[in-house]
Design a protein that fits this description.
The complex is a heterodimer of chains A (261) and B (176). Chain A is α+β, with helices and mostly antiparallel strands and 261 residues long. Chain A contains 8 helices and 7 strands. Chain A folds into 2 domains: 92 residues, no CATH class; 141 residues, Phosphorylase Kinase, domain 1, CATH 3.30.200. In chain A, strands 1-2-3-4-7-6-5 form a 7-stranded antiparallel sheet, sandwiched between helices. In chain A, helix 2 crosses helix 3. With 176 residues, chain B is mainly α. Chain B contains 8 helices and 1 strand. In chain B, helix 1 packs antiparallel against helix 2 and helix 6 crosses helix 8. Chain B is elongated and about 70 Å long. Classes of the chains: A alpha+beta (261), B mainly alpha (176).
Chain lengths: 261, 176
């Protein structure tokens, strides 16, 4: 708003594609700094760009048969030799990028005013909360497991969930560390943290949104951190951890079973 | 040592220009198509067409001219009977794929998602992202307004995000 000229969607594309001059680039960067949703979108496009470039980079090469192609002397089908070395190299890059590439939700805006859906915000915030709190040694939670009943009443009240039960993940080898209040999409939300015997942590986040619509399980992953999330009625849930997707899915299903429907 | 001033290289012959551009055209043709085989076919068609139409080249910007030929060939190919007699393009989708594929592109979910894009949107995305052409260059190449280029680019990016997201869905089970 304060910027002299507003930023159009075309500006964002041009920024992602590196076509802007210094002044315009700075203008877009100021806009992105104040608009995290747009910043995420642009980052997502850039990740797509990187993955596409590296996917096809290996094809930019000459072949011994190119001369025949030019002289019209080739025959169809021309001999095709797999370029294994180049392809294998590309495979490594693609594999690495595949983990990072576009896993955020759909583009919701037609015009520049960008609004992300709850299903896009939820996994991102769950991941951020995991990264921030799971690495805390002494203060990972506000209320520890020894006050589980209080934790449940307190967070249940803030989230307007009657009889909120803290999921029990003992059968999966994870015991409750505790929980905390935290904002989820700008509203009070709850996070529970669990830990297995090896000290590996997972977090379970719950948030409420009136506009929510029930979804299936979805997952998002970035840099080894996996998140399963789903929406059930007005409540959104996200289970995050740096563990195998299979195990995390089992935990998510267990939470889904235990949370009130 | 007296040849210091004769810097301007002799203009490349038509064939030499194609030859020099072939690696990039090969990358572009593959990025438009589903497989290495289809990519090479499109490349060959493009070279043939360029050689036949050499009189239409006005002597400026050879690269754009060649890219335009390839793009048009690809966009205009209306499910023409596949040259490979074994399997047509439509059937190819139903052919069982071996579990272990040699093709690294098959490992990229994003590249697979490209198959769901309209041809025009995919071509714009590739011309911009992989081939590095400016929006205006693409507009000139395709003979469409720049606004059309932008909307196709936007559509392509949106569709890819949606597709990637769809694939991240697992049906719920609430075991009781």
């Amino acid at each position: 708003m304060t910027e002299a000229r507003s930023i159009s969607e075309a500006d964002l594309h041009a920024y992602a594609d590196g076509f802007l001059n210094d002044a315009d680039r700075a203008r877009v960067e100021r806009f992105l700094a104040e608009n995290p949703d747009a910043a995420e979108l642009v980052a997502d496009w850039q990740a797509q760009n990187d993955e596409l470039r590296s996917a096809f980079a290996g094809y930019e090469q000459s072949k011994p048969t190119d001369i025949q192609l030019i002289s019209g002397a080739h025959q169809r089908p021309a001999a095709r030799q797999p370029r294994r070395a180049a392809l294998a190299a590309a495979a490594v890059v693609i594999f690495a990028l595949g983990a990072i590439g576009g896993h955020y939700g759909p583009l919701l805006f037609k015009r520049p005013d960008i609004q992300l859906a709850y299903t896009e915000i939820l996994p991102r915030e769950a991941r951020n909360a995991f990264l921030v709190y799971a690495s805390e040694v002494r203060h990972p939670v506000e209320v520890f497991a020894n006050e589980e009943a209080h934790l449940a009443t307190w967070l249940g009240k803030r989230l307007s969930i009657a009889n909120l039960k803290v999921p029990n993940l003992q059968t999966m080898g994870f015991k409750l560390v505790g929980g905390r209040l935290l904002p989820v999409a700008g509203k009070p939300g709850a996070m529970f943290m669990y830990e297995d015997q090896a000290g590996q942590r997972v977090t379970v986040m719950v948030g409420r949104n009136k506009e929510n619509r029930t979804t299936s399980f979805r997952f998002a992953s970035a840099s080894n951190v996996e998140t399963f999330y789903w929406i059930d009625g007005e409540l959104g849930y996200a289970v995050t951890g740096e563990i195998s997707r299979d195990l995390l899915q089992k935990i998510a299903e267990e939470c889904y079973r235990q949370f009130p429907s | 040592m007296k040849a210091r001033e004769t810097q301007a290289p002799a203009p490349l012959s038509f064939e030499a220009q194609i030859l020099a551009l072939l690696p990039q055209l090969r990358r572009y043709s593959r990025s438009l198509t589903r497989s290495d085989v289809e990519g090479e076919d499109l490349l060959q068609d493009c070279v043939e067409k360029a050689l036949v139409s050499r009189s239409q080249w006005r002597g400026a910007n050879f690269k754009s001219w060649a890219y335009r030929i390839m793009t048009n060939l690809h966009l205009n190919a209306r499910r023409s009977v596949a040259r490979r007699p074994s399997v047509g393009i439509e059937e190819a989708e139903n052919v069982a794929m071996s579990a272990v594929s040699d093709d690294p592109l098959e490992k990229s979910r994003l590249v697979k998602a490209l198959e769901t894009l309209p041809k025009e949107a995919r071509a714009v995305l590739m011309l911009v992202v992989v081939e590095g052409h400016s929006y205006q260059e693409v507009a000139d190449m395709l003979d469409v307004p720049i606004g059309t280029v932008m909307s196709r680019l936007s559509r392509a990016r949106q569709a890819l995000r949606e597709k990637m997201r769809e694939e991240n869905v697992i049906p719920m089970r609430r075991p009781r």
